[in-house]
Structure formats: structure tokens, C-alpha cells
Amino acid sequence: MALNRRNQNKRSNILVITEALLIAYMGYITHFILAQINISPSVPIEKLMVNVGMLTISILICSLSVGLYETKLRETFRGIIRRIFVSVGLSYFFVELISRTFFDALMMHPYFLPAAVCTIIITLVVFRYFTNRLGLLGLGKVRIVILGAGERASIIEKRMRRDVDRIGFELLGFIPIPGDNREDGIRKEKIIHVKVDENFQQFIADNDVEEIVIACDQRRGTLPIDVLFECRLRGVEVTDLLDFMERETGQIVVNLMYPSWVIYSNGFQSQNYLRDALDYFLNAFLATFVLIFAWPFMLITALIIWLDDGLRTRTSVFYRQERVGLNGKLFKIIKFRSMRPDAEKDGAKWASKNDDRVTRIGHFIRKYRVDELPQLINVFKGEMAFIGPRPERPEFVEKLVREVPYYNQRHNVKPGLAGWAQLNYPYGASVEDSMEKLKFDLYYVKHQSLLLDILILIRTVEVVLFGKGR
């Protein structure tokens, strides 16, 4: 994986450097044009360099925060444009605040910053279009072949059909292996008929293959270990299908997991002891910060719910429900009530996207996640964290543990207000949906880190701002 990682890092580094130069240059050009048309006076070069430098660094940091330099960013071009607007917009307010507070003497003309921000946004959008769509910068994709063309290999054909799913690699084709289930295997992808023997090295060299993904249905007695060993010695990456899917899609394919992969993987328990030790204090601090800004909206929401049907039905504006938390411990979750008081008169039911039990105000507060705000109380009580798998009801957990393999592993971490699965999959309304969401939940459990938490927080804010509630 080292060669692949080096290529990815090289692409990211060149992208960062190139965009830094573009941002700085557009800042300089903006001032030059404003001075030439007599809108703003010319300033000393030192003053201009400080302002342009501050703007450049701020935009790079914000772009990094919203994932614009992720090597495996799964986003449409429209999504990339939205992220550029968010990162540059945040930088605008940050630079304006810093300049007015600490560097009043270095303040530029009032028109400079808005004009610079506009030109930078246009430049970055055009630049990203050509780099992402036309493959500029001379950075080719990683060339891979799939060893196997049966049922396991077909997961790539089914889950990675779009070009955006393959943005980090170029798939040459699938190589059939004895024992593959071809009836349920590859249908539309390219099949490469080549023997995996001592001459396989020549095929790898002739096609500049950088990575081989092992996806055959039967390994015992069919996998050419000696050939793969030789490929590995020559610097070609050899990757298991589960690791490949985990890396490229941000999920763990639960239905393809096998015990030895779990044993030899990084595990599903956090090894970040400092993060674990500070877990409650970090979450309590974030909850306090959010509460300072959110309490007026919470008060208004409670009032509207009460006027909408609480006054008539004499039902609380809050909704308390038993959920399964860390290590299977039960607790009472607190939310703003978004459904009718008789929503579960016939027993527990899955929530769906267009649930007819949702009230008029409920549709709005669910879309913008306002109904989740009372869970700050659960955070203060230490029952929940800001980031983690969403807590499920014990009635459903009991069923899911029986039907979905490894489901209990999601309880290795505290449940959260926002999660990786919620960003990547819509409301779950069945066991099948729970299986799909578990793939993302286990990815989070396995890869939990402060940087991943920050990414989820930022993307959750994007969901709230643009009303993309899932």
C-alpha cells in the first residue's frame, strides 16, 4: 500500500501547493486591478503580502477541514463547488475578524477582501473542474487489476459503478480464477484472460499495474501465493478485497467479512488513549458551546410544538425513549417530539423518510436536525458523544444482533448525535438498511480519530445548513 499511498500523497501535496499559489496570485491581481481602476489606493508590498498570506493560509486550512484535499473525496462536482464556497466564506469572516481585532493598521480597502474572495472562488472552481475532470497535474490514477471474477469480485461492479467511485484508480479488468462463481459474478466489466503463473510478472510490467486486489471466491488451492509473493517483492501492492473496499468507499463490507480478516485487521477498539481520557471533557465543552448558540432555537421549537398540538393533546414537547448505548447499556434518549402522541400505539416501528406519523413542525425539525438538540442533555450525562453510531432501540437491537453479523461491535463506542453512517446512508427502515448502515458504523469504530470526528462534524454542519437531513 506504500506505493499507492505515496502517489496519493504526491497528488495532495501538488494540489495544495498549486492552489496556494493560485490563491496568493489572485489576491495580488485583485489589488492590482482595484488600484488601476482607482477604486482603492495602492498599498506597500509588505502590507499586501501580509493580507494575501493570511487569506491564503486561512483558505488552505478551511479547505483541508472540509475535505477538499482528501485523496478519496467522494463528491460530485456540485458538492466540490459547495465545499469551496464554504471554505472561502469561512476564511473571509476569519480574516475580517482577525484584521479588525489585532491588525487594524494592516487593514486593506473595504472592497479588497470581497473582490479577492469572489475571484478566488471562480479561480478554484475552474481549476478543480480541469484537474478533476481532465486529469491535469500529470498525476495518473493507480492502475489496478482484480484477481477474481466471481461473486466476491462482483461487489466492485455493484458498489463502484460511477466514475466518482473510481476517481483514485484505473481498473484494467478482472482476471478469472479457478473456483470463481461465474454465474453470480462479473457481468459488464472487462474480463482479462491471462494465466497467473511465472509469466504473470510480464503482464504486470507491460501494463504498469501498481496494485492487485484479491477478490477470488475460493482461496485454498487456487490462489497463486508464489506469484503474488514475487509481485510484492517487486513493489506491486497486493490488497485484500475487504481492505480495498474499506479504503475506497469508507465502509466495511460486513457480509463478506471472515474471521481471519477480523483477527489480522487493526481491530475495533480505540487505541487513542489520550482521546479516550479526554472524551467526556471534549464532548461537554462542545455541548456547552452549541447550547450557548442553540438555546433560543430550542426555546422557539418547544413553543411551536406546544402550540401545534401539545396544547391540544396535553403531551410533552419532549420525547424520551430507551436506547442501547456503550457496551449495551440502556439509557433514555431525549428529543423534541416530531411525531404524533399515538405514533406507536401498535408497537415499535422503523422510522422512514416520508413517515406519515410525523407532525407538520416535525418534518422541518427532522430535516434540519433541530429535534436532536435536547440530546445535549445526554451528552452532559455522559451517555452520548457528539460523534458516534446513532443509538438504536433495544427492540430492534435484539432482532438485528440475530440477523446482522457483527452488529454488536457498533456498541464498542458511545452512541452519537451525528455519525458516519448518517452522512452516507438515509433513514433505515429495515434489516437490510441496518446492514448497510452497519458497514459505515464499523468503519467509524475501526478508524475513530479526532480528525475523522472533525470531518463528520463539519459535514454534519453542511447537512444542517443545506437541509440535507438523512
Automatic annotation (TrEMBL):
It is found in: Membrane. The chain crosses the membrane at residues 12-37, 49-68, 80-99, 111-131, 280-307. Residues 282-465 form the Bacterial sugar transferase domain. Keywords: Membrane, Transferase, Transmembrane, Transmembrane helix. It is a multi-pass membrane protein. The keyword Transmembrane helix applies. The keyword Transmembrane applies. Its main location: membrane. Pfam families: Bac_transf. Belongs to the bacterial sugar transferase family. This is TIGR03013 family PEP-CTERM/XrtA system glycosyltransferase. The lineage of its organism: Bacteria, Pseudomonadati, Pseudomonadota, Gammaproteobacteria, Alteromonadales.
